[in-house]
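Two proteins were folded this term; both appear here.
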Amino acid sequence: MSREVPEGWQASPIPDLLQKISKRIRKLQTRDYRDRGAIPIVDQGESIICGYTDDVDNICPVSLPVIVFGDHTRCFKFIDFPFAVGADGTQLLKPTSGLDPQFFFYALSSLDLPSEGYSRHFRYLKEKSILYPSLTEQRRIAEILSSVDKTIHATQAIIEQTRKVKQSVLKRLLTKGIGHTRFKQTEIGEIPEEWEVVSLADLAENSRNSFVIGPFGSNLVMSDYRDEGVPVVFVRDLRPGQFRWKSNVFVTQEKATQLQPHSVKSGDLVVTKMGLPPGIAALCPEDFPCGIVTADIIRLRPNRTKVDPAFLVELLNGDRARKAVEEITGGQTRPKITLRDYKNVKVALPQTSEQRLIREGIAPFQTCIEGQEEQLTVLEALKKALMSDLLTGRKRVSDGFLMAAE
């Protein structure tokens, strides 16, 4: 191991620090997840809890706490409550005696594992080593980091609750509209009489390549990626209603020219073609330079005479569009929607003036969410800095206080 070992610390390969879990683990498929239930389901996705079940036979038999590792996603989770294990790719880890489980979780979380897409990553984890101090110092470090995590989780809870309220208001606005008293039955349900039902294909700009997916796999591969140039947009850069480019992956201008039909620019909508769940939509922001989308993304260039782009984002992330996507992808182990199917998704469309009013009506909720997310970014940066210092021994803890190692 190349890192210097601080005084009083040890360095060990991760395989030497793992207990062997011999119990048979039942793993639930995504089709078995429920929105409510007595037992939370934990899988390899980013969210701590991905669903629920009521079947007690699904409770994980491994003693708590346990660390969940996403073999495909590289996510680590510290789980100290009864749960069921979800889907393929979920690995359970327990440290040997002499290691505090929560410290071990933070140590694992600090590792830099290479990303190989949807490939297995546990083999890379087994090649790593970690540093660790005495059990007493481990517990102090874990206590400091967990206190920051509690604040992070509280902020995340505010964001989640605000999202729920926003979604509830949006659901009513997208079904009842503003000020309507007369309604009609349609193939997608009851809508205001003045609205119309259209397919998403009807809302694309009347130009070539206005509604496309990313390039076929062999046309954009890892060897094409560069440290600078034209940005590449991945699924991980999108959240419902939010475009946050964090991939920091580029291609050359020459390669981008070859892939021009798959370009994305300010004002375009980008939608996840696969993921948990697929169909997450966001608007490419004004300050984003022209880029390229990957094969797992749908790019829609909207016809602004028919639809307000920001309203369309809310429409696509709303209940009706989300349920339409779920009906198409239901039963798939790795849910994925084709461009053809997505173009045929039907939505209820008001006049552009009412679209803008609906968008303005939910704007305060979005402003609150974005403010809390800025605070979350600050907290996550603090946690990252603390992990860098505490898990390497650059700063030591003594009686609950930090002190410089030197």
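Next, the second protein.
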Amino acid sequence: MKTEEDLWEIVQKKLDQKYPPAEQEEEQAGTDESDAIMDMRIKEGIKLLLEEKRKAGMPVAGYDMATKKAYVEYADGRKEYVTNI
């Protein structure tokens, strides 16, 4: 079974393919363009991690905007809403 660390490695490789590190280094720190690239990497990384967790059969945390409640979604599609935090 894959671990969280394994999944992060997969996500990092996919992000590096889409946004090569050489391009990142060319950007100057603090510019709007480098900030935009960082934002894209973060959003894409979260999306990829959730996809990889689902593929691995791991539960995924989410938030239901309609009910304004947090939940855990399991590999079988079942959602358990969090009642105690």
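The helical segments are 4-18, 21-26, 32-55. The CA atoms of residues 57 and 76 lie 8 Å apart. These notes refer to the second protein only.
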